[in-house]
Amino acid sequence: MEFYIDTADLKEIKSAAELSILDGVTTNPTILSKQNLPPKEVIAEINEMVNGKVWYQVSSDTAQDMISEALEMVSVISRPVIKLPMGLEGLNACHALSKEGIDTNMTLIFSVSQAILAAKAGAAYVSPYVGRVNDTGWSGYQLIKEIVSVYETQKFNTKVIGASLRGTHDIVEMAMLGARAVTMPYKIFSGLFHHPMTDIGRNQFNHDWKEYKEKLMSQS
Ligand code: E4P
């Protein structure tokens, strides 16, 4: 299962990149708009910091412009994944870029039919927006389950990446439902490590070990 953080904040990326199991960084136009540098510079900096894939989402309107925008970004990324918005133009751009050997992701996926089209267009990844589906009163988990099932039945190689995740338990659900990847805000990522019982247990072990060593010292 691949793990990504969904951020362009360089401090967060530096901290997360210290963990060797991080597979890369995903971004989107909203995330990049919070930075004060041009997107290509931000993406190039992220690429320097991360030993993994860097995802960039195009914001052009036509397939041709999406392809040009993608190729410009690919020039500054070692292991690029180009995110394309679901739709006719995005699918055509996905097909063309995938044929050129560039990893693509169809994003803004809210239905199984969209996920099927993305797989047929050659997308390496597809992003169902779990949290935003839940917000509308439907089940994002059910959507993941159905897409995973259809991909298995149809033997599509496209990987499902759970996106728009809102809490640590979402990550567990994605793992159980068969998503091959997850992307999450830094806050969720850093929260995955922690459990109060781990802290209590660790303090107890440290305390007992210290007392044991002091006892041995006093006997020698
Ligand atoms: C994924 O591709 C998106 O960048 C992201 O997961 C969207 O999350 P949000 O719904 O919390 O904005």
From TrEMBL:
Example GO molecular function: aldehyde-lyase activity
Alphabetical GO biological process terms: carbohydrate metabolic process
Keywords: Cytoplasm, Schiff base
One protein family per Pfam: TAL_FSA
Domain of life: Bacteria
GO CC term (a single one): cytoplasm
InterPro entries in the cross-refs: Aldolase_TIM, TAL/FSA, Transaldolase_AS, TSA/FSA_arc/bac
Localization, UniProt: Cytoplasm
Protein name in UniProt: Transaldolase
Organism of derivation: Neobacillus mesonae
